[in-house]
């Protein structure tokens, strides 16, 4: 009976040791996580017609007015464009808040900034 338990325990210890070595080998040999691509290498999937339309609005209405007042560009399917557009809107709101706070004044949030924060 004692021999049976010794065999079982030695088998369990050997299996655990092998599992430990495999885990250690995995940790040592694993490749590092790839970094997120920067905007310089991000593939531009925006259609040329959409880009021309946006540039036309910017030239006609101005950069800030185009992105903050005119439209949300829902017909443009480029994910990176919308990510950058929303970042611009958030940065312009943050800058407005900062300057207003420094001036000691409370400003009314324009409707377009209040609308975008809910998206």
Description of the structure:
This protein is an all-alpha fold. The chain folds into two domains: 1-32; 48-117, no CATH class. The chain contains five helices and no strands. It has helices spanning 2-29, 48-61, 63-70, 79-103, 111-117. The longest helix has 28 residues, at 2-29. The mean pLDDT is 79.
Key features?
mainly alpha, 2 domains, elongated, 119 residues, 5 helices
Report on the biggest sheet.
none
How much of the sequence is in beta strands? under 5%
Helix segment count?
5
Task: State the secondary-structure class.
Answer: mainly alpha
User: Span between N and C termini?
Assistant: 70 Å
**Global mean pLDDT:** 79
- Low-pLDDT segments, ≥5 res: none
Strand-and-helix sequence, N→C? HHHHH
Radius of gyration from the alpha-carbon trace, in angstroms = 29 Å
Oligomeric state of the chains?
A: single chain
What is the element layout, followed by pairings?
Elements: H1 2-29, H2 48-61, H3 63-70, H4 79-103, H5 111-117
Helix pairs in contact: 2-3
Task: Explain briefly what this protein structure is.
This protein is mainly alpha-helical and 119 residues long. The chain has helices at residues 2-29, 48-61, 63-70, 79-103, 111-117. The protein has two domains: 1-32; 48-117, no CATH class.
